């Protein structure tokens, strides 16, 4: 779903990142958070990145989730051009299992923060939960949905381990 009015932009460096980044989209969908997904690359589409990042706040976005793999400059470059909070998701790369993505995103210079998540799908899902938590500060109904979501996670955890999964 690409919502018309979106609070969250999920951007990613390539179509190949979608398998990971869809966890963020599905999590936001489950929480009823309007979002938009876009393929934008600092390397391959620098003009598109500039236009997006410079206009993101005026476009009404409140939070940006940026996923990229390998030499993952997308989250940091986005953060450099917007005052909005940026959460970076290191996509698992083939050659270096996402270690390259993680290190490219996490070690930002002081002054330009990127909230860096875990490598891969868990990181993408958690980025969405963080984005929802930020939005929930000013949205009581969303805060209630987030609480319910957490309670449902808790309810799924069994009391005891069993031999049959
Ligand atoms: N890290 C970046 C950026 C960027 O940081 O701007 N743009 C594309 N990429 C990454 O290149 C990887 C391989 O891309 P392809 O699968 O298209 O070759 C993807 O994980 C993408 O995020």
UniProtKB/TrEMBL annotation:
<keyword id="KW-0456">Lyase</keyword>
<comment type="pathway">
    <text>Purine metabolism; IMP biosynthesis via de novo pathway; 5-amino-1-(5-phospho-D-ribosyl)imidazole-4-carboxylate from 5-amino-1-(5-phospho-D-ribosyl)imidazole (N5-CAIR route): step 2/2.</text>
</comment>
<dbReference type="InterPro" id="IPR000031">
    <property type="entry name" value="PurE_dom"/>
</dbReference>
<keyword id="KW-0658">Purine biosynthesis</keyword>
<feature type="binding site">
    <location>
        <position position="14"/>
    </location>
    <ligand>
        <name>substrate</name>
    </ligand>
</feature>
<dbReference type="InterPro" id="IPR024694">
    <property type="entry name" value="PurE_prokaryotes"/>
</dbReference>
<protein>
    <recommendedName>
        <fullName>N5-carboxyaminoimidazole ribonucleotide mutase</fullName>
        <ecNumber>5.4.99.18</ecNumber>
    </recommendedName>
</protein>
<feature type="binding site">
    <location>
        <position position="44"/>
    </location>
    <ligand>
        <name>substrate</name>
    </ligand>
</feature>
<feature type="binding site">
    <location>
        <position position="17"/>
    </location>
    <ligand>
        <name>substrate</name>
    </ligand>
</feature>
<dbReference type="GO" id="GO:0016829">
    <property type="term" value="F:lyase activity"/>
</dbReference>
<dbReference type="InterPro" id="IPR033747">
    <property type="entry name" value="PurE_ClassI"/>
</dbReference>
<keyword id="KW-0413">Isomerase</keyword>
<comment type="function">
    <text>Catalyzes the conversion of N5-carboxyaminoimidazole ribonucleotide (N5-CAIR) to 4-carboxy-5-aminoimidazole ribonucleotide (CAIR).</text>
</comment>
<dbReference type="GO" id="GO:0034023">
    <property type="term" value="F:5-(carboxyamino)imidazole ribonucleotide mutase activity"/>
</dbReference>
<comment type="similarity">
    <text>Belongs to the AIR carboxylase family. Class I subfamily.</text>
</comment>
<dbReference type="Pfam" id="PF00731">
    <property type="entry name" value="AIRC"/>
</dbReference>
<dbReference type="GO" id="GO:0006189">
    <property type="term" value="P:'de novo' IMP biosynthetic process"/>
</dbReference>
């Amino acid at each position: 779903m690409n919502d018309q009015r979106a609070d969250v932009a999920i951007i990613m460096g390539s179509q190949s990142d979608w398998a990971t980044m869809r966890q963020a989209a599905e999590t936001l969908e489950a929480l009823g958070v309007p979002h938009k997904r876009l393929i934008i690359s600092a390397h391959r589409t620098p003009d598109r990145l500039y236009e997006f990042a410079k206009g993101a706040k005026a476009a009404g976005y409140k939070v940006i989730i940026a996923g990229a793999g390998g030499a993952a400059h997308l989250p940091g470059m986005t953060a450099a051009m917007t005052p909005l909070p940026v959460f970076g998701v290191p996509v698992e790369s083939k050659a270096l299992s996402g270690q390259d993505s993680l290190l490219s995103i996490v070690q930002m210079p002081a002054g330009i923060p990127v909230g860096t998540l875990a490598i891969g799908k868990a990181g993408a899902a958690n980025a969405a939960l963080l984005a929802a938590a930020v939005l929930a500060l000013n949205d009581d109904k969303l805060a209630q949905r987030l609480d319910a979501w957490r309670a449902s996670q808790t309810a799924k955890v069994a009391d005891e381990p069993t031999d049959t999964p």
